[in-house]
Amino acid sequence: MDRAQKEKVVEELGQIFESSGVVVVAHYVGLTVAEMQDLRARAREAGGSVRVAKNRLAKIALEGKPCESMSDLLTGMTVLTYSDDPVAAAKVAEDFAKENKKFEILGGTMGENVLDRAGVEAVSKMPSREELIASIVGCIGAPAANIAGAVGAPASNIASILSTIEEKAA
User: Fold this and answer.
1) Where are the domains of the chain?
2) CA distance 146 to 91
3) What is the arrangement of strands in the sheet containing 78-83, beginning at the earlier edge strand?
4) Which of 8, 48, 149, 166 has a 20 to 30 A CA-CA distance from 41?
5) Residue 71 and residue 88: Cα distance in Å, rounded?
6) Threshold 0.85, pTM exceeds
7) The domain made up of 3-126 is a member of CATH 3.40.980.10
């Protein structure tokens, strides 16, 4: 890899560290190609990505960034799992780590906050952006459903009273 390629990789990593909602750092020693492809597919499905980069270049990309202290995690064979959604990459990494003991999560970053192993696990248990939107829409839609039920209720009550009177008269 020549200098121009290295500069391009550093620039790409810098954008990842700045724009991603969450970045998870893990060791992947011993994973097969098929297992790495599975991790990449899961991340892509969740709206995230997986990136293997040289630690030295990643540390250079972290210089001057709010999450610069994350560079302590970059030792050994590391892989970065990241996503714009602040929860998606953490969920993918946690689920993958449960199934593959060779995939060891070291920590990560969420904005300016550096996360340890427990922090990544806590983030993974949070609801995703889509789940939060669905619950908000549900809360907004519930009053409208209640109003529609209340408006329709008197008519059904009158109908049932009339049918009861009709049955008694017959």
Assistant:
1) 3-126, 127-170
2) 35
3) 48-52, 78-83, 22-27, 104-110, 113-115
4) 8
5) 22
6) no
7) no
